[in-house]
Write a structure and sequence with these properties.
325 residues; two-stranded antiparallel ribbon; 14 helices; globular; ABC transporter involved in vitamin B12 uptake, BtuC
Amino acid sequence: MDALRSFVRTNRWVWSALAVMLLWIVLAAVTGRWSLASLSGIALSASFLALAGLGQMLVVTTGKGNIDLSVATVMTLSAYLGMLIIRGSDDMLIVGLLATLGLGIVVGMINAFLVIAIRIPAIIATLASGYVLATATLLANRSLQGATVSPLLKGFASGRIMGVPLMAVVAVVVAAGFAVVLRKTAYGQQLSAVGQSRAAASVAGVRVNRVVAIAFVVSSVLAAFNGLMLGAYVGGAFLEMGQPYLLQSVAVVVIGGTLIFGGSATAAGTLFASVLLVLVVTLMQIMGLPRGAQDMIQGAVVILVLALAVQGGTFKAAKPQANLA
């Protein structure tokens, strides 16, 4: 029993994985029409959410209540930028991809500069940059006359391998890569140390500002790539297309077991939580709940998870690590 408790305490993703299994069983029993084919659709939707959530996870892990609120607008603007540059031609696909990734790098660096150099709280800094990006999106919307998607990009975004969506494969690979980085690399250890105690991490020789900056850049780059893929999947770009991912990207991080106060993250938990949240939304849609009610319930779920975690001591910070330089 002690070994089981220790395993669960160390691997907080277990709870979201169990919740996915239970909710899947409930949905299958209630509807009587859930199958592996429907699970494939769930996995596709969850893959877009997981990519946004994994980037958000790194920012949250840096501690000090950091959250990237520019994720949604980066996704939307990236979709527009990709459509404007590629214009349905496979020949311009590489240029469009590089442009959107470049947008992510620039936005991430700006966010990092505002947070690190000017010392603006991350929530305020990324919210402000999000407003600027929203204005740019409005201008892009005026410039986009119709939308055609590159056949190759469309095929990748909606393609399948043996019935498994390619985007789901991408999400799993990215999550696995993040798990390796968090557990096996110097950056992962430094990220945890920074989230637990920046003062202690600095004394241990960690370049705190660089660690935080990388987290913001990676978050924006993933959001940019995600927006491009989402635009290709839906067949174009439209205003507010990234908005649902603002709350949900934070929700999957928290539900997945990443400490909201920083210092410890779980990529597997974020991945499972993405599937769980999509299942919850699907259930609410089956019940015919309006969009506003769905948002309220999602918010309530996040609050419940936070409350349970605080009561259970899940958010108690670990001891600062040393020798991480």
